[in-house]
């Protein structure tokens, strides 16, 4: 392309190349999602449709971005961990953040009806985003543990809060005052004694959030291995998780994991795509 006299304006662009040899975490978060949830009749304290939609949108991001090795989501936020040697968009921060955010946001809208059916999308959702760099695998693991610990703290509070409002007939202000100064044990006792709710039996997706992993997985009795993205809800705060997935942050890991969980929307999508491309059929045991 021929140069013009106006090309000097390119010199005003700032270099936003991210520090090399570090793990890049892109975290997106819903903006004003409390109002969005109210306007779209989300079930309280947790709406499984909304969580599954978040997970499916994150799966679309992860499927198209090979350098993401793990993602973690809860409520209205999702974190995407890039491997430390990624050269995706030459590690340009603005490119990374806007690409991930726009892909996630558009997928959330595009797949809305898949999970919400006849519930009409009243207006487009909005997500903000940030990038954080971590120098060591230990930092990344602690980051993931932090976000999962946040799930438990918030969900236990919300479960108790909405039990008081929806079943205990308290106003939001009264429920908030009732829970002020309580610790986890107090909330567990309140739920069990007053509402016969055993918090330990709540769905794991509510208590743990969702982890998206890229793994070589055994899906059938014939022990064939298939590279897949799987969504799980395991406890990352326990050491056995990191022993089971010891190469989680290694993009070239070929470790095989036997998967005997449910066939989720995310896994089913991959199975159907393989069948469409005339790959060998997968027999699910």
From TrEMBL:
Residue span(s) of domain tRNAHis guanylyltransferase catalytic: 6-135
Enzyme Commission (EC) number: 2.7.7.79
Binding site for Mg(2+) 2: 29, 76
Cofactor: how bound: Binds 2 magnesium ions per subunit.
Cofactor(s) for this UniProt protein: Mg(2+)
Top EC class for this record: transferase
Transferase in keyword set: yes
Keywords: GTP-binding, Magnesium, Metal-binding, Nucleotide-binding, Nucleotidyltransferase, Transferase, tRNA processing
Single GO molecular function: tRNA guanylyltransferase activity
Ranges where the Thg1 C-terminal domain occurs: 139-225
Catalytic function, reaction form: a 5'-end ribonucleotide-tRNA(His) + GTP + ATP + H2O = a 5'-end phospho-guanosine-ribonucleotide-tRNA(His) + AMP + 2 diphosphate + H(+)
Entry's Gene Ontology BP terms: tRNA modification
Positions that bind Mg(2+) 1: 29-30, 76
One protein family per Pfam: Thg1
Residues that, per the record, bind GTP: 29-34, 75-76
Assembly mode: Homotetramer. Interacts with MFN1 and MFN2; functions as a guanyl-nucleotide exchange factor/GEF for MFN2 and also probably MFN1.
Similarity section: Belongs to the tRNA(His) guanylyltransferase family.
Function: Adds a GMP to the 5'-end of tRNA(His) after transcription and RNase P cleavage. This step is essential for proper recognition of the tRNA and for the fidelity of protein synthesis. Also functions as a guanyl-nucleotide exchange factor/GEF for the MFN1 and MFN2 mitofusins thereby regulating mitochondrial fusion. By regulating both mitochondrial dynamics and bioenergetic function, it contributes to cell survival following oxidative stress.
Listed name of the protein: tRNA(His) guanylyltransferase
Organism: Pieris brassicae
């Amino acid at each position: 392309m021929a140069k013009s006299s106006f090309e000097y304006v390119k010199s005003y662009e700032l270099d936003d190349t991210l520090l090399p040899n570090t793990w890049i975490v892109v975290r997106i978060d819903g903006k004003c999602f409390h109002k969005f949830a109210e306007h779209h009749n989300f079930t309280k304290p947790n709406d499984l449709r909304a969580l599954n939609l978040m997970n499916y949108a994150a799966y679309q991001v992860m499927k198209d971005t090979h350098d993401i090795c793990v993602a973690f989501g809860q409520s209205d936020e999702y974190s995407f961990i890039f491997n430390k040697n990624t050269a995706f968009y030459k590690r340009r921060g603005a490119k990374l953040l806007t690409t991930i955010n726009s892909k996630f946001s558009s997928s959330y809208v595009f797949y809305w009806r898949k999970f919400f059916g006849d519930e009409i999308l009243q207006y487009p959702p909005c997500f903000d985003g940030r990038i954080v760099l971590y120098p060591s695998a230990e930092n990344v693991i602690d980051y993931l543990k932090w976000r999962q610990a946040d799930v438990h703290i918030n969900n236990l509070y919300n479960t108790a809060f909405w039990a008081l409002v929806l079943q205990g007939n308290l106003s939001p202000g009264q429920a908030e005052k009732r829970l002020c100064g309580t610790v986890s044990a107090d909330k567990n006792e309140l739920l069990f004694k007053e509402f016969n709710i055993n918090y330990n039996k709540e769905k794991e997706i509510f208590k743990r959030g969702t982890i998206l992993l890229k793994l070589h997985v055994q899906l059938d009795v014939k022990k064939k291995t298939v590279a897949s993205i799987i969504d799980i809800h395991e406890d990352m705060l326990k050491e056995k998780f990191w022993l089971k997935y010891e190469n989680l942050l290694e993009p070239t890991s070929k470790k095989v994991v036997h998967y005997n969980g449910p066939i989720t929307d995310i896994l089913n999508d991959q199975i159907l795509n393989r069948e469409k491309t005339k790959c060998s059929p997968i027999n699910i045991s």
